[in-house]
Amino acid sequence: MRIDFHAHYYPPALIDGLAELGGPRMHAGHPPDLGARLPVLDGAGIKRQILSVGALMPYFPDRSNAHRAAQLFNQLHVEAMEPYSERFGAFATLPLPHLDESVAEVDRCLDEFGFAGVAIGSGAGGLPIDDDYFAPLWQKLEERQCVVYIHPGVNNGSVLGGVDYPPWLLNPSFGSPGETGRCVARLVLAGILDRYPGITVIAANSGGLLPYEWPHLIRAAENTGHPELAGGLRKIWFDCGTSTEHSLMAVKASFGLDRLVLGTDMPYGDALATVGLIQTSPHLGTHDATRILDTAPEQALHLTKG
Questions:
Q1: What angle, 0 to 180 degrees and rounded to 10, lies between the N-to-C axes of helices 245-253 and 271-280?
Q2: Start-to-end CA span in the chain (Å)
Q3: Residue 29 CB coordination number (10 Å)
Q4: C or N: which end of the chain has fewer Cβ atoms within 10 Å?
Q5: How far apart are CA 109 and CA 91, in angstroms?
Q6: Is residue 62 part of a domain?
Q7: How many domains does the chain contain in total?
């Protein structure tokens, strides 16, 4: 089954709700009817697309607003997917850093809605997502044997100075890739993957800047007594959203193509172009392309429902 793990859905009701509850006001939103996507998905051979809120995670200081926003986002995804239940799934949005509400939302979305897993950012409330504060959330995700999709957002408290200026330019195109690489490295170094082995982690966009800085990072890890970093990072899956020939070369030379799954970043990314790149890239053989597009999701991630 060809599954797209990286896609977003921002209907006008979500955009309006985000602004009313304390979030940023962005564009007018995507068409509410997901049926408009089906011709593109069919053309790319994609049987199922997993939606997530991406950069607009409602990680608000106000507990009530964060909770209301997460519930709204998840409900809007449920309603949009209902007519096309065989074609779409979703990663749940959580109201971090508020743990009681987030843990409850994990159960609600998995049990009532049958979501494919949860999406979380690189941090919330001024803390990185690997901080001990978030242990109750990781324990719940382990209990549920959950798929966790890492996608940094505008409310993650980025440590990269200046990435919010100009608005919506440097953060998604430069800050977010840096945050992704930092986040997954911290997850390994903090021992999250060892303490919670039942969790499957997928990181957005080939790990962001990670494959480009891999040689420097691994050398530094070995020199500072952390040889486990390289092996730990290879336990994480990465979607190939926003891939180019250059990024595929970097991934292949660093953590390997066997850790890649399909991601298109629709509707911002081009699904046909992404699939075409994987199928025709001189850096990938037929076996590699088939594994990324069709074998890895079903055999390695067991994510054929949700």
A1: 50
A2: 13
A3: 15
A4: N
A5: 9
A6: yes
A7: 1
The secondary structure of residue 245, as a DSSP letter, is H
DSSP code string of 249-304: HHHHHTT-GGGEE----BTTS-HHHHHHHHHH-TTS-HHHHHIIIIIIIIIIS--S
Amino acid present at 10: Y
Q: Which long-range contacts (CB under 8 A, 24 or more apart) does 229-235 make?
A: 229/185, 229/188, 229/189, 232/188, 232/189, 232/193, 232/194, 233/184, 233/185, 233/188, 233/207, 234/259, 235/188, 235/193, 235/201
pLDDT in tens, 65-103: 999 999 999 999 999 999 999 999 999 999 999 999 999
- Of the candidates 89, 81, 17, the one whose C-alpha atom is nearest the C-alpha of residue 51 is 89
Phi-psi region of 7 (alpha: psi -120 to 50; beta: other; left: phi over 0): beta
Strand partners, 50: 89
pLDDT in tens, 220-263: 999 999 999 999 998 999 999 878 888 899 999 998 888 899 99
* pTM across the whole model: 0.94
- The CATH number assigned to the domain holding 50 equals 3.20.20.140
Domain that holds residue 250: 3-300
Distances (CA, A) of 259 to 52, 217, 236, 262, 305: 20, 18, 7, 10, 20
Q: For residue 290, how many other CB atoms are within 10 A of its CB?
A: 14
Per-residue confidence (pLDDT) for residue 175, from 0 to 100: 76
Residue type for position 66: A
Nearest by Cα to 175 from 189, 185, 161: 161
DSSP 63: H
Q: What is the CA radius of gyration of the chain?
A: 18
* Strand pairing report for 117-120 and 88-93: parallel
Alpha-carbon distance of 272 to 210, in angstroms, equals 25
Inside any domain, residue 306? no
Using CA atoms, how far apart are residues 179 and 166, in angstroms rounded to an integer? Answer: 18
DSSP string, 146-195: -EEEE---TTS--SSTTTTSSTTTHIIIIIHHHHHHHHHHHHHHTTHHHH
